[in-house]
Description:
With 202 residues, the chain is α/β, with parallel strands linked by helices. It has helices at residues 12-21, 32-37, 49-58, 62-70, 80-83, 189-200; strands at 2-5, 26-29, 40-43, 75-78, 86-89, 95-96, 101-107, 118-126, 140-146, 148-152, 158-164, 167-175, 178-181.
Amino acid sequence: xxxxxxxxxxxxxxxxxxxxxxxxxxxxxxxxxxxxxxxxxxxxxxxxxxxxxxxxxxxxxxxxxxxxxxxxxxxxxxxxxxxxxxxxxxxxxxxxxxxxxxxxxxxxxxxxxxxxxxxxxxxxxxxxxxxxxxxxxxxxxxxxxxxxxxxxxxxxxxxxxxxxxxxxxxxxxxxxxxxxxxxxxxxxxxxxxxxxxxxxxx
Length: 202
């Protein structure tokens, strides 16, 4: 069973529909017990970092997320669900994250001719073998909507990079069976559906 974590901030139904389209039903839940027994866990998210952490704590979901990752059960973070894995974010102050990965989350500081948020289609460049990207060509276009990006301390967790505003940023991480993307697979048409299908098959 695939559990999609509901903490009141996420494109939940779109993610669920994406899995359904590739033949893998997924359950939207805010119950930590359901998350704890799921075969695969998805942490989506759209919104502010501080609010997300507050809701995850209030609903008692933090421990079940950490236990899933520690057990190396397949885990997929999407957008804010990637950022929450890090030590802290500098969005509207400094706010502590889940601390699964060392590093921080910072706002784009790029030339003014580039818009922030970074929104629309852009390419991802794999930095090694990334199982959830199986069957996709390097330079595949996926869909982004974000003003902040992650800066991992450990470069070995960087799964893909993307160029924007004259810089390259980490657009996806992987460590064991933990994957998380800054882009939205559920909004990335056939390429994104392939990523969801690959994740469901891990």
